[in-house]
Amino acid sequence: MQTEKEKDSKIKAAVLAEYTDSELKGDPELLIDSARGINESKKFSATFADSREFLSKALNSAASLIITKKGLLDELELESFEKTFLLSDNPRRVFAQTAQLLTDRPYFTANISAEAVIADSAELGKNLSIHPGVIISENAEIGDNTILAPGVIIGPDVKIGNDCLFHPGVIIERESEIADQVIIQSGAVIGSDGFGYASDKRGHHKIPQQGNVVIESEVEIGANTTIDRGASGSTVIKKGAKLDNLVMIAHNVEVGEQSMLVGQVGIAGSTTLEKRVTLGGQAGVVGHINLAENTTGAARAMITSKTNQGDFISGAPAHDHKDALKEQAYLRRLPKYIKKIKQLEKRIAELEDK
């Protein structure tokens, strides 16, 4: 099986420096073939260190290229360097970009399997990797360089951009729109019906969900995450948002640019998250509210009302994180307080009896 990496399996350190906007110290002609952790590093691999402790370990590792902070190298006061370095204020970001260049895209074949089922009306781009068991329905559009792993199902009238990667078992329901460079992990369902009902004494009457899901570019969606279609209009995941595994997004939610939702987050219908909202694991958000830009909700926060820009909240119901920590501290002292109160009550009773 041919892979993209086989076309250019090694990259010069100078090219990596330019691509990652970092400062090069050492051999610009050094060829790098992989990006690894310090303990897993090998000759011709890159690794990264963001503290003196890890830099010392990296210097003694097999890695040929070390990505580290500006100034950190000077602190060690070494007389000579056997390795090559990329220096940056954000070495983790540089390492991530380096790893992206040097790591194969999973399931890349540049081939359309004869065991895929593709509607005649579907429009297919160039250089696609479509695996056995894939179903592409009527009027679907698939952009260039996109990878559909085994068992992916693409519904009718779905539009998918360029350079996307859908892992095995992903389901994209009808009329969903997905932009470029979107990664979706196994088992995710995009565009399922929202939870919409009108209730009376006879029962719960389904409200047809007539909208769709729109996912903008550079979004990543974790395994077994579900994003419901809009009841009317769209559920929107904006550019650069990252959703972990087992996240649930209800109908007509809008997730803002560069937001990060950690595992088991649940967001009820018609709620809006502005840019760079971060929600910790198992955080829940009620419907029809707005979380302002740069809001952070701690793990298990139960968010029931709108937030202001930059709020850091936790607890149930969620409120200012510092206040929540104080309340937790007071709660831990309750047994001592109760004991003290009983002692005081006993003392008062004794005084009253005299």
Automatic annotation (TrEMBL):
Protein name: UDP-3-O-acylglucosamine N-acyltransferase
Quaternary structure, from the entry: Homotrimer.
Protein species of origin: Halanaerobium hydrogeniformans
Keyword Signal: no
Enzyme class: transferase
Pfam families: Hexapep (PF00132), LpxD (PF04613)
Catalytic activity: a UDP-3-O-[(3R)-3-hydroxyacyl]-alpha-D-glucosamine + a (3R)-hydroxyacyl-[ACP] = a UDP-2-N,3-O-bis[(3R)-3-hydroxyacyl]-alpha-D-glucosamine + holo-[ACP] + H(+)
CDD domains: LbH_LpxD
GO molecular function terms listed in the Swiss-Prot or TrEMBL record: N-acyltransferase activity; UDP-3-O-[(3R)-3-hydroxyacyl]-glucosamine N-acyltransferase activity
Organism lineage string: Bacteria, Bacillati, Bacillota, Clostridia, Halanaerobiales
Entry GO terms, CC: membrane
Its biological purpose: Catalyzes the N-acylation of UDP-3-O-acylglucosamine using 3-hydroxyacyl-ACP as the acyl donor. Is involved in the biosynthesis of lipid A, a phosphorylated glycolipid that anchors the lipopolysaccharide to the outer membrane of the cell.
Pathway listed: Bacterial outer membrane biogenesis; LPS lipid A biosynthesis
Active site residues according to the UniProt entry: 251 (proton acceptor)
Alphabetized UniProt keyword annotations: Acyltransferase, Lipid A biosynthesis, Lipid biosynthesis, Lipid metabolism, Repeat, Transferase
Classification via InterPro entries: Hexapep, LpxD, Trimer_LpxA-like_sf, UDP_GlcNAc_AcTrfase_non-rep
Family named by the database record: Belongs to the transferase hexapeptide repeat family. LpxD subfamily.
NCBIfam families, per the entry: lipid_A_lpxD, PRK00892.1
Domain UDP-3-O-[3-hydroxymyristoyl] glucosamine N-acyltransferase non-repeat region: 30-101
UniProt-listed Enzyme Commission number(s): 2.3.1.191
Entries under HAMAP family matching the protein: LpxD
SUPFAM superfamilies for this protein: Trimeric LpxA-like enzymes (SSF51161)
GO BP terms, alphabetized: lipid A biosynthetic process
